[in-house]
Amino acid sequence: MTESTRSATNRIDISGKTLDLDEFVTASQVPDPVLTAPDQVEQADASALAEVGVLLKEQDRSGTYVLRDFNPICVQAQVEGLELLPIAVALEMYDWLHDYRWQAVPADLNEITRRSAADPAPQGYFIRVKQGTKIPHPVQAGLYMAHSGIAQTVQNVIILEDDTELHLITGCVTGRSVQHGVHFAISEAYIGQNATLTNTMVHSWGPQVTVRPHAGTVVEAGGAFISNYVSLRPVGDILSRPKTWLNGEGASAKYLTIILGAAGSEIDTGGEVYLNALDTSAEITHRGVCTGGHMYQGGLLIGNAECRGHVDCSGLLLNPGKEGFIVSVPGIKALHPEAQMSHEASIGKIAPEQVEYLQSRGIEEREAISMIVRGFLEADIEGLGAELDAQIAEIAELAGQAEG
């Protein structure tokens, strides 16, 4: 690890919060290590990554990328038609990549993107699925902060050419001893005609980690974007407002967010989908559990054509205390007479009659409460299985202990 460059310009505003990057290590002067195979990654690192669905000892992955602090340690594509490279390498190889980069997320969007765009040696991954290729197993990317006190910045570009399919699992995690740090991520996805990208992101951060993801996705005719976002561990401060443009006829987007707002957390998750072409469709679904944090749920659909869209924000107050709360603001904006759009929001606690019903069936109160919480958070996300189930079960068990 090396000291960050000290300068007055290191004080930046990140959505209403001033952050002094002089307090963090922002880059490493240590050369990148020799890349290793997934099953050769150190056990402590592999265990941390497994918690967020990045399985380095398994064989059901078509590709693997792992960034440890500031250095890629594993980059491996295992099937034909899949290209997986560090973003800096891809930018050197392909001049045409500059025609994509910073189109879905503008370089001048804010101070984070401007600093990232000026980085001469960006970290992050480049994924390209070549025309007609359907990747058989998920590709996984682990963005891992192994040390406290660092500010990790990544740039990711994903390109799916026409008639392709990819499931990407991105696991973002801090080591067990990491308490504080910063994670900035810029991710751009370009989905070709009749292509499908399923993007599953699992976050597991330290209690004093600040997270600012920036995501933009462009979908062409017949293409589909499915986004699953899961964060069921305490996090200090996260603001996520992805944007998606459905630019081709029949394009679709579906967002599912499952998130825990623990005490001390500030969480703002929303996003916008622009339905710009005939017969486009979009769905945004939020499931939030508040145990003392400050949670803002949102989502805005903008109908610019004959289209269909729905936003559903639901929150469960589970021992929020005096400070915890959920604010749900689903939004729809129709700019075309044939746009069919709807929204709903609900926030509440576990209903006593639900518990009583289960008790009447012979289930103990504590287990009944756990079952209700598991049902509220239940999500069948391909490729995660035991990892997601374990986190949901942990929250359900805590709910049963607290409420029972």
Helix-strand layout with pairing:
Layout: E1 11-13, E2 18-20, H1 43-50, E3 63-68, E4 71-77, E5 82-86, H2 87-93, H3 111-117, E6 125-129, E7 139-145, E8 151-160, E9 165-174, E10 180-191, E11 196-204, E12 208-219, E13 224-231, E14 237-240, E15 243-246, E16 252-262, E17 266-269, E18 272-275, E19 280-291, E20 294-303, E21 307-317, E22 325-334, E23 340-348, H4 352-360, H5 365-377, H6 386-403
Helix pairs in contact: 4-5, 5-6
Give structural notes.
The chain is an alpha/beta fold and 404 residues long. It folds into 2 domains: 38-350; 351-404, no CATH class. The chain is 15% helix and 44% strand. It has helices at residues 43-50, 87-93, 111-117, 352-360, 365-377, 386-403; strands at 11-13, 18-20, 63-68, 71-77, 82-86, 125-129, 139-145, 151-160, 165-174, 180-191, 196-204, 208-219, 224-231, 237-240, 243-246, 252-262, 266-269, 272-275, 280-291, 294-303, 307-317, 325-334, 340-348. The strands form 3 sheets. The protein has a 10-stranded mixed sheet with strand order 4-3-7-9-11-13-16-19-21-23, with helices on one face. Strands 12-14-17-20-18-15 form a 6-stranded parallel beta barrel. α4 packs across α5 (365-377) and α5 packs across α6 (386-403). The longest helix is centred in the C-terminal third of the chain and has 18 residues, at 386-403. The protein starts with 10 loop residues before the first strand and ends with a helix. Mean pLDDT is 89; it is low at 1-8.
The global form is globular
Residue runs with pLDDT of under 50 for 5 or more positions: 1-8
Largest sheet: 10 strands, mixed
Rg calculated over all Cα atoms: 21 Å
What amount of the residues lies in strands? 35-45%
For the terminal residues, how far apart are their CA atoms?
47 Å
